[in-house]
Amino acid sequence: MAKASPPPPPLDPAPTSIGWLVAIGVGLISLLAGVAGQWQLLPATAAAGLLLVAIHQTSQNMRLRQLLEHRDDPALYDAVRGYQPHLLNAVAPTKLLDTLRGLLQANGWLLTNNQDVLLQHNLTPAHRPAKLQTGIWLHQGDESWLRLVRDGQEYILALQLPDRLTREAARRYLEQLPFDRQQSEEGPESRANSSFQIVTNSIAFMAEGMIVTDILGNILFCNGTTESWLRQDQPSLTGMSLATLLHSFDPRDNPPWQETVGEVLTLHEKRAVYITLQGRDFLLHLNPFPLPDFQRYGIVATLSDITELKDQQRQHREAIDFISHDVRSPLVSQLALIEQLKRHNEPVQPEQVDQLGRLARRSYQLAEQFVQLARAEQLTETRFYECELLSIVENANDSVLEQAAGKQIALKLQGQEDLWLRGNAELLERVVINLLTNAISYSPEGSTVNIQVFRAGHEACITVSDEGMGIDEADIPQLFDRFTRRKTTELSGSHHGAGLGLSFVKVVIDKHKGRIGVVSMPGEGTTFTLRLPVLEPLPEAS
Q1: Which parts of the chain sit beneath pLDDT 70?
Q2: Mind listing the pLDDT tens digit for each residue in 312-364?
């Protein structure tokens, strides 16, 4: 039979940093239980347990060894003791290189041990700089070099970094790695504080909002994300009833917030509720969790921003409406005309063929616009590359020459300077084509469309100006919304757009972190201005 441990010594109420270890213990117990599959939503629950103990600690002057001798779970001390802030000194060089080249998407790499090449791709020992300091990165061009000494062995590690826009960020990341510091012999108390700081920082910067309450449903803690979403700081929220807080942002009576919060506290049942905060949509999870005595329960509430998901649902509904009406309409007209021709059994007239052609082209154009918009919405920076703006605009200009000639519209392009940026040239060209197509469509015959490409500060700019009917001031705020048409053109029946072209323009420019401006006067024409960030050359490190 195992010998019983002596009772723990009495606690001194004077707070010290030892108490943080207790908080870490509760958090780690929660996490270990989560690994065993016993709880759900463990990150928030574990964090809440950790923080609540820290908040409620009042007696923490116990000697560390005595505290650890009376821990409930032997794994806790091992987990805390195992943390060291400078673990990189113990990582095998081959593992280190493999990790870094994957994280930074390196184009080339090299690892040597003394004179032996261990790993190599696109770099050779001949590229090695003359002077390398141990543990300090040396950057030259697109290469970064590091000298390591492990157990008396010299290792040279090198990476060939990707394109220049991400290279500077990669260099900063490499320089933050603590290769130039020796492992320090930290005491258990110091390691416990470091571990607690890691956990609290991760809670503060987690993507979800988190609120912790006591047994009465009064707020004890909220993280920084919650403060940002509610636009209130923690001191003003501490002590406030969670039900009162929720009611102030999203009043509801069926059921009232007090009833929902009360059910979580009394029945120990989870609740999930959709709410609106500051004009954005959220999913609120209310979960009971045991307070330090494990007999009474508080609430840990997590907030997830689902605004984008709601927007996608709205866009899905709009897409269904668009397909069911706009796309089907010309197809139904084509089928009706074909059936009419079959019934009369007469030779097909040229005007009937033209009508079928117009309907077919309209169906194709609508489908093409819809596909282009979907592509734009899925665009990410992984599909960006260095491209030159003036050549993009010239290609777009060439693509609409035939359309402009059909209305005897002159296209005048002004621009001499090569402006480089990081983006997707194919979609940017489609943006300019859409603007030029609109300008030609809404301009009278014999008029002029002017295109300018120039630099303004750190931005590359494109302006497209026409001499058309212009846009009513009331239409401009909704101009870039999906499936939105101009009222004037709809009433006149002169143009039948699907309301997707300018929405595509807005999506692509937003993806490129650019801006759009519109200046228009009815009867005098319209000018669209696109502004995109210029790709600035990065200074090469010595």
Answers
A1: 1-87, 164-165, 180-196, 294, 318-319, 321-327, 483-499, 537-542
A2: 787 777 667 666 666 677 778 888 888 888 887 778 888 888 888 888 877 77
Q: In what order do the strands lie in the sheet with 297-305?
A: 219-222, 209-213, 297-305, 280-290, 271-277
Residues 6+ apart with CB under 8 A from 537: 164
> 130-180, pLDDT tens digit by residue?
889 998 999 998 999 999 988 889 999 999 998 766 788 889 899 888 775
- Residue 379 CB contacts under 8 Å (≥ 6 apart), including other chains: 424, 427, 507, 508, 511
Looking at the structure, tell me whether residues 279 and 325 fall in a common domain.
no
Instruction: Report, in angstroms and rounded to the nearest whole number, the Rg of the chain calculated over CA atoms.
Output: 32
Whole-prediction pTM: 0.51
Q: Taking Cα atoms as reference points, which of 237, 298, 209, 212 lies closest to residue 262?
A: 298
Give every CB contact of residue 331 below 8 A, 6+ residues apart in sequence: 359, 363
Residue 100 in contact with residue 91, Cβ under 8 Å? no
Do 281 and 369 fall within a single domain? no
Calpha distance 311→321 (Å, rounded): 15
CATH for 242? 3.30.450.20
Same domain, 74 and 119: no
Peptide bond just before 255 cis, omega within 30 deg = yes
Q: Which domain holds residue 195?
A: 9-85+187-205
**Among candidate residues 378, 397, 413, the one where a domain is terminated:** 378
Per DSSP, the residues of 106-168 read -SEEEEEETTEEEEEEB--GGG--S---BT--EEETTEEEEEEEETTEEEEEEEE---HHHHH
Of the chain, the end-to-end C-alpha distance in Å amounts to: 68
Question: Does 335 lie in the same domain as 219?
Answer: no
Q: Is 181 helix (H, G, I), strand (E, B) or coil?
A: coil
